[in-house]
Amino acid sequence: MSGTSGVMRALRPADAPAIARLARAARHAAIADLPDLHTPAEDIAFYAQQVSSSIGFCLESDGVVLGFVLGQGQMIDHLYVAPGSQGQGIGTSLLKRMCEELPGRPVRLWTFQSNQGAVAFYRGHGFAIVDQTDGSGNEEGLPDYLLQLPWTDPVAGWMTR
């Protein structure tokens, strides 16, 4: 994990409170006017269910989760890094691990158009925008992009930049 210090491990349902807090903080740091549609307790229940039904990993240091990723099939459903830990290679490590583990190809994900940091991050790792919506299909009602990674062999090093 170049640029990171910590341990990558599989997510467990017991991680739900920590990852729910981290996701909320990261979302608000990225998009200031993002609406809170659920209570913190609802977020915890949601992430507990997601961890139980998805492939997921986190990177933690000294027992603190610094970032996590969840996905299934060919979709990355969630990738968040704590605001104070961004820019240290954590997101790249999580993204690479998930792309190696997901069984479906090509790997895809959605992100809000207004989250320019995420759009730049994914495009910098080879993802291309393949669709966009007006937001009518997501809970937040925000325009979003569907990004796709043209797949190459992860062993050959698709993220060598």
Short description:
31% of the residues lie in helices and 28% in strands. It has 161 residues and is an alpha+beta fold.
Polypeptide structure, described:
- By secondary structure, the protein is α+β, with helices and mostly antiparallel strands.
- The protein has one domain (7-156): Gcn5-related N-acetyltransferase (GNAT) (Aminopeptidase).
- The protein contains four helices and seven strands; from the N terminus they run E-H-H-E-E-E-H-E-H-E-E.
- A seven-stranded mixed beta sheet has the order 1-2-3-4-5-7-6, with helices on both faces.
- A hairpin with a 2-residue loop joins strand 2 (55-61) and strand 3 (64-72).
- Helix 1 crosses helix 2.
- The radius of gyration is 15 Å and the shape is globular.
- The chain starts with 6 loop residues before the first strand and ends in a 12-residue tail after the last strand.
- The relative contact order is 0.15.
Shape field: globular
Report, as a whole number of angstroms, the end-to-end distance: 14 Å
Order of helices and strands: EHHEEEHEHEE
Query: According to CATH, what is the class?
Result: Alpha Beta
Number of separate domains: 1
> What proportion of the residues form beta strands (DSSP E)?
25-35%
Report Rg.
Answer: 15 Å
Indicate the CATH architecture: 3-Layer(aba) Sandwich
Uncertain spans? none
Q: Going by CATH, what is the homologous superfamily?
A: Gcn5-related N-acetyltransferase (GNAT)
Q: Kindly report the spatial arrangement of strands forming the biggest sheet.
A: 1-2-3-4-5-7-6
Number of strands: 7
